[in-house]
Amino acid sequence: MRTRLIIITLVVAAIALALWYVLGDDPAEIGGTVSPAEALSGDAEGFLRADGPKEFSFPEDHGPHPGYRTEWWYYTGNLTGEDGRRFGYQFTIFRNQLTPPDTAEVDRSSNWATNQLFLAHLAVADVENDLHYGAERFSRGAAELAGAQAEPFRIWLEDWSTEAVGEDTTPMRIRAEDDAFGLDLTVDPVKPKVFHGDRGYDPKGPDAGNASYYISFTRMETSGEITIDGETFNVSGESWMDHEWSTSALTEEQVGWDWFSVQLDNGYDLMYYELREEGGSRSPYTSGTVVDPNSNTVSLHEGDGELEVLERWTSPRSGGEYPIRWRLRIPGEELDLTIESLFPDQEMNVSVRYYEGAIEVGGTHRGEEVSGRGYVEMTGYGDGLGQPRF
Amino acid sequence: MTRSLWRSSMRYLWSHPWLFGLSIVGVAVGVAMVVSIDLANYSAQEAFELSAETVTGRATHQVRGAGEELDEDVYRLLRVEERIRPVAPVVEGHATIPEAGRTFQLLGVDPIAEGPFRSYASQDAGIELESFMAQRNTALIAEPVAAALGKDPGDELQIRIGGREHTLRIAGLLAAENERSERALESVLVMDVSTAQELLGMEGRLSRIDLILDSGDDEKRSRIESILPESAALERSEARTETVEQMTRAFELNLQALSLLALVVGMFLIYNTMTFSVVQRRPLIGRLRALGVTRREIWGLILGEALLIGVLGTAVGLALGILLAQGLVVLVTQTINDLYYVLTVRQLSVDAWTLAKGVLLGLGATLAATLWPAREATNAPASTVLQRSATESSARKAAPRLAISGALLGGVGGGLLLIPSQSIALSYSALFLLILGFALLIPFVVILLAGGFRPVMDRLFGLIGRMATRGVVTTLSRTSVAIAALVVAVAATVGVGVMIDSFRNTVEVWLEGQLQADVYVQPPSLVFRQADATLDGDVVATFRSAEGVRDAHTVRSVSVRTDRGQSELVAIETGPRTEGAYRLKEGRLGVWDRFEQEPIVMVSEPYAFRNDVAVGDTLQIQTDRGQRPFPVEAIYYDYASDVGAITIHRSVYNRYFDDEAISGLALYTAEGQSVDSLVESLRGMVPEGQEVFIRSNIALREASLEVFDRTFTVTVVLRLLAVLVAFVGVLSALMALQLERSRELAVLRANGMTPSQLWKYVTSQTGVMGLMAGLLAIPLGMILATVLVYVINRRSFGWTLQFDVSPEILLQAVALALVAALLAGLYPSYKMAQANPADALREE
């Protein structure tokens, strides 16, 4: 009899346990995905377009150009520590307008209301150790979290910023810090600003509007600090700054670009890019600018340059086969350069992967041996076309 | 041998289907009540926790402001200047979607900052910033909700917030990753922080800032604390959830206790049934023992029967409980929504532990109730078992002894109640001891009562009446248990009934005094007893200067942080009639003279009770000027909320809080102005698209009482269930008793009693027992009511209630017992009147 009771008790307990197991809630985190509504304005409709040369006015044009969909302030540079140790850096703030200006909501009372999205990329290349540090930030361009203004010059995303040191736009101070690395640099142009393309109007395709406004400081004296893993290096060197804005720069066939900025030791600076089309062919909209030591410029057009890839490197992350060594010839300028990434892995591992690498340049210019430093940017090799540049 | 024993046992149960069936019903109803209340509470808790989890996400800490809100610049300070990450801004509120007919949690977020906190609301979940962030009044809702409403992304959705209507556009649908997420997301409206601010009128402010801090990172925590402005504070995310959960604890505990009361009643029924079946089979058991069946086998036999009843009753009880819980969860949710916070429970969560508890209680109670009868059956020597009269005479002899132990037990129970503890569990234990003690008194009292009844019955029904009354005493071993079961069951309904009545009357009297103004203006509030919405400033200005308005007082209610936790702070304006509206339980001299000027506060009685605050204590309240001390100078009676409130003068409040908002407006009419026509004309002044409640004094009182009644629906339902158990108890106990006497009745019939005399005999006997039970239930019911009103309610909610007994409840109790008793007599007397006495006389 007692055994029977025990058995019954056990059976009841077993049933209770089974119920517990079946009905017990899995305390997993609450998760979900969003299937969004079609954004109201997917295309360029309603935005301002870069559709022809225009009169710039400064310092206003150093500031933001709302109405254009995309804009960026882009700094790259090669720096050397006191002990000769080399570093590359990149600091970029992108402004993205989410909706056309005519659909912009007026009279919104919240400080958080905005159609401006800001992105920022920060990278430091530790050449000695072949290490590339990269970081990305996003923020809405509102509630004092991110923004851009011409006077006084200040472009910022949270605590990452570039701003005028004094009353003038330049010199500028760039400050940005991530968990493992950061920088605090002052950049001061040694040449006046350069207007690329046709007085700053730089077409990227056959249609009017497939273009951007493009201004650069091609050579900026740079000094300050770079921090890596808690170690601070006093550095100096040269930087390059681009400021570019557009609404729809690339045509549908264009899948990416290879862009170079070079500062030669004879005082010349060079910007050169090629747009690649599907299948790997070069788009006719290739462009460049040569800046002489006295800041006179020569614009380069299709056929002016010849870029040959000498070596490639495959990214273990994206699988993209990035070129890392090139021969660039610009016969009209008697320029014949070999360009090489300082080390292969300088891929920016951010929401849209691309390559932003410090480069070393050697070759001849007008018969003289030259060398130089610069940066290369390549998109469309890894996960498809990058949002960043054009 | 064992098998044939079992067969005899089964045959016995089978031949007494009424008895068997009603015992099962007794267990089933008891188990069902415990299980259903537990499930309803559990479901409400689950829903609350899930919704808290939904909006808290992985945040471990949060920064909150002094009141409900926080300056949004604190977020910039933390994120940009102090580089504290991860950190995310949150704007929270509630919105009703009329089409869905329910309230949603409105969650305003910055999708860019959300990733580490709530993955479903983050950029990574696939939110299109173009529509979500850059456009106004867009929101995400759960896919099933959209499907139920027939909406697609891009469609418009009407919502109501604080009485105002808004149109949203669905920017996307939230697809849950699993079933749990689906439940979590089905009551959320996710929107951009900008839209949420605009819809809730919270421009420039946030509800809170979420943070994730490592548990050991004290350095970071103190750094954050050091940089926060004085009005803001860092707290654990769970602290808030716990505070809210704490509010309903007493409410839930009391429901549980009431359901346990039903189980106790159920236990009495089982005890009755088992005792009865043992007593009835004494001759059989005696014969079996004489035949050599061991005590252990008899013991096993009785327990086996009990187990069978227990298992069947429990199984039915579980099913019934789940069914009942479906209805109860609605009532429980309604009460929580009326009294405490906004809660949507979309489905019943069946908790395995509750079911296990139901099984344990059902089987345990059955077996426990059987132990005594089983011992009775096995311990008696074989020879005396055969003699029925021995049992009865020993039962009569035992009656005084039982009465003494009953009195002792009751004394212990009463003593426990005198212990100055706040433990509700202790109070209920004492209550159960009192019930048990009273039950033990019953056999003795029945003998006394029967002596008193006999002459009355004699006069009414003659010999048959006398016989019927005597029969109650001569078969005391059976009747006393049955009567005790009835008494306990009926008394439970009396106790709860008197408690509810007392409560309601107290509230009614209090409302009478509290509502001194003529017209009350309130925005629609999601929780009735909380002013969680604010009135439009223009409306307030218009009303104040409206014709026919002599005077107006504003009320502002906010949630503040104090050194004793989160509390409701009510800022009032005073006038000549205010002193009359607040009945002080205790107060310093001249408190009203200082109230307007000095930083002092009054607290409600439940607040003082919950937080152990006395007049003369000082509360530290987090204000916009930092933490400030406020001496408590008075405690006032208040039945609006069991959570309690702190009351401060508006002019003092304004010195410490940067808050212009008004939660409610009380208007006094000018001389000769009719209240109804003022209400009418004020209604005409409310701008289109805005909902404002404008009610006269009388209408508000009625509305308040309506809500009061609604919040007691659960209790009333429980009481009705207890009535049902009591009824079943009366029926089963008395019917069994009469059926068992079929032989005795047959003898009477054979001796010449006519069917109609038999009828009279049976019904008058059950009637006497019912009447006894009904009468005895009144004192026990009063004891229960007293304990509920003066001890349990005080210890649970801190309320002083006026004890109030309506004669209806007492009459109802006696009638309940009597009617059930008479009904119970119907079937046996019918059966016996029909049967051939010769058949009944034959041994079974």
Which features does this protein show?
heterodimer, A: 390 residues, mainly beta, AttH-like fold, 13-stranded antiparallel sheet, 10-stranded antiparallel sheet, 6% helix, 51% strand, globular, disordered C terminus, B: 844 residues, alpha+beta, 10-stranded mixed sheet, 9-stranded mixed sheet, 62% helix
What does this structure look like?
- The complex is a heterodimer of chains A (390) and B (844).
- With 390 residues, chain A is mainly beta.
- Chain A has one domain: AttH-like domain (AttH-like fold, Beta Barrel).
- In chain A, the strands form two sheets. In chain A, strands 2, 3, 4, 5, 6, 7, 8, 9, 10, 11, 12, 13 and 14 form a 13-stranded antiparallel sheet that branches.
- The longest helix of chain A is centred in the first third of the chain and has 22 residues.
- Chain A is globular and about 100 Å long.
- In chain B, helix 2 crosses helix 7 and helix 16 runs antiparallel to helix 17.
- In chain B, strands 12, 13, 14, 15, 16, 17, 18, 19, 20 and 21 form a ten-stranded mixed sheet that branches. A nine-stranded mixed sheet of chain B has the order 6-7-5-8-4-3-10-1-11, sandwiched between helices. A two-stranded antiparallel ribbon of chain B has the order 2-9.
- Chain B is α+β, with helices and mostly antiparallel strands and 844 residues long.
- Chain B has four domains: 203 residues, no CATH class; 163 residues, no CATH class; 273 residues, no CATH class; 168 residues, no CATH class.
- At the A-B interface, helix 1, strand 1 and strand 5 of A face helix 2, helix 3, helix 5, strand 7 and helix 7 of B.
Record the SSE blueprint.
The complex is a heterodimer of chains A (390) and B (844).
Chain A (H helix, E strand, L loop, with lengths): L1 H22 L8 E5 L33 E12 L4 E12 L18 E11 L4 E10 L5 E4 L4 E4 L2 E5 L7 E6 L3 E9 L4 E2 L5 E3 L7 E18 L2 E16 L7 E11 L4 E9 L9 E5 L5 E4 L5 E9 L6 E10 L4 E7 L5 E2 L5 E12 L2 E11 L12
Antiparallel strand pairs in A: 2-3, 2-14, 3-4, 4-5, 6-7, 7-8, 8-9, 9-10, 10-13, 11-13, 12-13, 13-14, 15-16, 15-24, 16-17, 17-18, 19-20, 20-21, 21-23, 22-23, 23-24
Chain B lengths: L1 H14 L1 H40 L4 E4 L5 E2 L1 H9 L5 E11 L4 E8 L1 H4 L14 H4 L5 E5 H7 L6 E6 L2 E13 L2 H7 L2 E5 H8 L4 E2 L1 E4 L6 H10 L5 E4 H11 L1 H32 L1 H9 L4 H45 L12 H28 L2 H4 L2 H31 L5 H51 L1 H39 L4 E4 L14 H8 L4 E14 L2 E8 L5 H4 L2 E4 L3 H5 L5 E4 H7 L6 E6 L2 E11 L8 E5 H7 L7 E6 L5 H10 L8 E4 H15 L1 H28 L1 H9 L4 H43 L9 H28 L2 H5 L3
